[in-house]
Design brief:
Layout (H helix, E strand, L loop, with lengths): L2 H19 L5 H7 E7 L5 E7 L3 H11 L1 H18 L1 H27 L2
Antiparallel strand pairs: 1-2
């Protein structure tokens, strides 16, 4: 793997993790696996705790899904294993996710500079 390919996998992993963990498209999966609890910490502060929902496998996978670090590890494994076994498809997937990831980062910069 070249340095450029490694960079693309990093950005693709970031984008896939964000897609799975935070984007609207995966909200049904999040609602099934996760529950959020809010606790007031004073007048203007609220702490939100995210935990796995239910028991057994649902709770276990919910706990893994609650952790964005865990989701990024599984995303990286998925992309690298896929790239090894199905390189033609996963090269396209990684390229698309990388472009989307870099575009979202550029959007963040533009919004920051427009303040």
């Amino acid at each position: 793997m070249t340095g450029f390919e490694f960079f693309l996998v990093i950005i693709a992993t970031f984008r896939l993790m964000r897609l799975l963990r935070y984007d609207f498209i995966s909200s049904k999966l999040r609602n099934y696996l996760l529950e959020e609890r809010e606790q007031p910490l004073g007048e203007d502060h609220i702490e939100v705790t995210i935990k796995g929902r239910g028991t057994g496998a649902r709770y276990f996978f919910g706990e893994l899904y609650a952790c964005h670090w865990c989701v990024s590890i599984w995303s990286a494994i998925f992309l690298l294993v896929g790239l090894y076994y199905f390189p033609a498809f996963f090269q396209w997937l990684i390229t698309i996710l990388s472009i989307a990831g870099l575009a979202s980062y550029l959007q963040f910069i533009v919004e920051y500079l427009d303040r």
